Amino acid sequence: MNRDELGDLLKRSFGFESFRPLQREIMEASLAGRDVFALLPTGGGKSLCYQLPALIRPGLTVVVSPLIALMKDQVDAMDVMGIPATCLNSTLDARESQRRQQKLARGEYRLLYVAPERLMLDGFLQDLRCRHIALIAVDEAHCISEWGHDFRPEYRRLTELRDILPKVPILALTATATERVRYDILRQLRLQDPAVYVGEFNRPNLTYRVVAKHRPYDQVLAFVRARPSDSGIVYCQSRRSVEQLAERLREDDVPARPYHAGLAAEDRNRHQELFLRDEIRVVTATIAFGMGINKPNVRFVIHYDLPKNIEGYYQETGRAGRDGLPADCLLLFGAGDTVKYAQFIEQKADPNEQVIARRQLQEIVHYAESARCRRIDLLGYFGEEFAAEDCVACDNCLSPKETVDGTVAAQKFLSCVYRIREKSGFGVGLNHVIEVLTGAATEKIRRWRHETLSTYGVGLEHSRQEWAAIGRELMRLGLVQQTAEKFSIVELTAQGRTVLSQRTAVTLSRQMAPPASDAPASASGKSQRAERAGRIVCDEMLFERLRRLRKHLADERNVPAYIVFSDVSLRQMARDVPRDERAFARITGVGEKKLAEFAEVFLAEIATHAEANRAM
Ligand code: ADP
Ligand code: MG
Ligand code: ZN
Question: Would the CB of 48 count as within 6 Å of ligand 1?
Answer without folding.
Answer: yes
